[in-house]
Amino acid sequence: MTGDAVARLAALDTCAVSDAIDSLGLAGAAPGLAPLWEGGRIAGRVHTVALRPLLAGVVPPTGRHLGTTAIEAAGPGDVIVVANGGRTDSGAWGGLLSAAAHARGVAGVVVDGACRDVDEAVGLGFPVFARGVTPVSARGRTIEEATDIPVLVAGVRVAPGDYVVADCSGVIFVAEDAAARVLDAAESIAAREAAMLADIAAGTPVTQVLDRRYEEMTTRHVEAGADADADADADGRATATVGTEAEGGARAGR
């Protein structure tokens, strides 16, 4: 499923995936994160990096620089996700890290915080998504807590092995165990929007194209589940309730 899921995700934009997770009652949109240069787009599996502030008076630990363990753990097409609590007072990613990740075939990086050396990333064609930019170094200010553990990114719980898609509209995370459902829903939504675009190009009035069906695009999956449960209950068959399914999906989707 892994390679197939990444290929299917790469064929979609974040808006279709966002609509899909809405339709399934899942979390995943990471508000405030945006591309730091135009043209960067990524889709892949996640390796996480958890950072924390270095407290005043504490001697920073010796050893590997933050982010380097994740780079060496990542494979071609993977995406590194750095959780830094939204901090923008100093960088959580920089030019040397971009160069090393690019050389390893990493698809890009998502940082819940600030990045520096953006010009170097642009020169490499290495996509960087973050909350902002800064020239200030992390040295003496931030240390790595762990690599490949569950983290919070813009309020979204993200685990190693989850999926992420990011483009000019923002960043969306998809939980590994929800990927099949989300991709099916997103592909259905994308196909319907493509048909709507064709109708507009053919001259159909926009008031007819963007009618009630468009407003209900992100609720149909929930409604379909409710109808199925009602039919099953009427036949006397044992079924899970929509509420139970929705709760389970929300937990799985963080």
Concise synopsis of the structure shown:
By secondary structure, the chain is of the alpha/beta class. Helices cover 39% and strands 25% of the residues.
What does this structure look like?
- With 254 residues, this protein is of the alpha/beta class.
- It has a domain at 27-174: Ribonuclease E inhibitor RraA/RraA-like (Glucose Oxidase, domain 1, 3-Layer(bba) Sandwich), CATH 3.50.30.40.
- Helix content is 39%, strand content 25%.
- The chain is built from ten helices and ten strands.
- It has helices at residues 2-10, 14-24, 68-73, 95-104, 118-124, 179-201, 206-209, 212-215, 220-234, 242-252; strands at residues 34-35, 42-53, 79-91, 108-115, 128-133, 142-147, 151-153, 156-158, 163-167, 170-174.
- Strands 1, 2, 3, 4, 5, 6, 9 and 10 form an eight-stranded mixed β-sheet that branches. Strands 7-8 form a two-stranded antiparallel ribbon.
- Helix 2 (14-24) packs across helix 6 and helix 4 packs parallel to helix 5.
- The protein is elongated.
- Mean pLDDT is 86; it is low at 222-252.
